[in-house]
Amino acid sequence: xxxxxxxxxxxxxxxxxxxxxxxxxxxxxxxxxxxxxxxxxxxxxxxxxxxxxxxxxxxxxxxxxxxxxxxxxxxxxxxxxxxxxxxxxxxxxxxxxxxxxxxxxxxxxxxxxxxxxxxxxxxxxxxxxxxxxxxxxxxxxxxxxxxxxxxxxxxxxxxxxxxxxxxxxxxxxxxxxxxxxxxxxxxxxxxxxxxxxxxxxxxxxxxxxxxxxxxxxxxxxxxxxxxxxxxxxxxxxxxxxxxxxxxxxxxxxxxxxxxxxxxxxxxxxxxxxxxxxxxxxxxxxxxxxxxxxxxxxxxxxxxxxxxxxxxxx
Length: 313
What we know:
Order of helices and strands: HHHHHHHHHEEHHEE
CATH superfamily of the largest domain: Cytochrome c-like domain
Number of strands: 4
Strand order of the largest sheet: 1-2
Distance between the termini: 39 Å
Oligomer: single chain
CATH architecture of the largest domain: Orthogonal Bundle
Shape: globular
Strand content: under 5%
């Protein structure tokens, strides 16, 4: 019963996210016909934003002054030149850190973090700054440090009309992160009516994905990331960590190995087999695994005109 309630609540929150991010009335009617039939909807273009706040947020995202020893930045774990998550687990020696989630399309998630503890990008950024496995700092200290830099403080005045403070710092970072969407995947093109975007094998993989019930948890604009679910229903999925997790997005999944919160699945093939056994009580054939992986490979989108690519191993 607890899991049912969690899933229902997650779906309710997800509905609000999709309504806010992708209003159906804004889509061409031909696209709506295809999308209305499917459990997955395409990623929208990034929302409009103040270019000064966006540029400032991008600078802060790579600024090591957000960490106590000024050696660690958001981009240290979230490389937007590759997959938005380079596979790092925080600072070296942080043995209990969870595998890094990609920052790409995080703005489309109903909650943030593996356990869904954060309700907004600003909350997550503030927690990351304070996290001893990451920045080991505090927002007041970061604000003090940035305010002492005349050029940086001037940039905040131009963007926000006042000196840097907590709210403007977190808003600038959030503004940049909201821009980190990866539209244009081949699957999204298929949703939009391009029947040539998927091969017959990839389309069969999508049919298998729906027939086996994968789309019960992995659906919506982010192909997941919109509900909390129990992992390891029929048999253990991982050896350690939380039992209830936010279902991860499958967007760009082919480029974001390793998989699961402990990073214990090195390849998509391994992850698909283990998920089927643990969550669906299914033992997949080699052909079924290959079919599902073929579909998952079509979920890779683009950022700034370049396809999302794999990060460091």
